[in-house]
Design brief:
By secondary structure, the protein is an all-alpha fold. The protein contains 2 helices and no strands. It binds zinc ion.
Length: 88
C-alpha cells in the first residue's frame, strides 16, 4: 500500500501516477520539469565555480604583475622586507 511518489506536478503539487503524461488534476505536462531543475542548478553552480576560479586566477596574476619590481613603487616593499636582525 506504499506507492513510491516519484513525480509531482509542479503546478498544483499533486502526486502524479506513473504513466501519466499529464497531471490529472490540472492538465499540466510534468515532463522534464523536475528532472531538469537539479541539472540546471548543478550546471549553474559549476559554471559559477569555474567563473570564480577564473576570476581568482586573473586577480592573482594581476597582483603578481603589479607587485613585481618594475619601478612603479620606489623601495616601499624593500624597506618592509628588511629583517630587523638586532638581537645580539
Ligand atoms: Zn497539476
Amino acid at each position: 500500500m506504499s506507492a513510491p511518489i516519484e513525480r509531482m506536478c509542479h503546478r498544483c503539487l499533486q502526486p502524479l501516477p506513473h504513466k501519466a503524461a499529464r497531471c490529472p488534476n490540472c492538465g499540466e505536462r510534468p515532463e522534464g520539469t523536475i528532472r531538469n531543475l537539479p541539472a540546471l542548478l548543478a550546471t549553474g553552480g559549476i559554471l559559477a565555480l569555474a567563473f570564480l576560479v577564473w576570476i581568482m586566477i586573473a586577480v592573482f596574476r594581476n597582483q603578481q604583475f603589479t607587485s613585481a619590481p618594475s619601478g612603479d613603487q620606489n623601495g616601499v616593499t624593500q624597506e618592509q622586507a628588511k629583517p630587523p636582525a638586532f638581537d645580539k
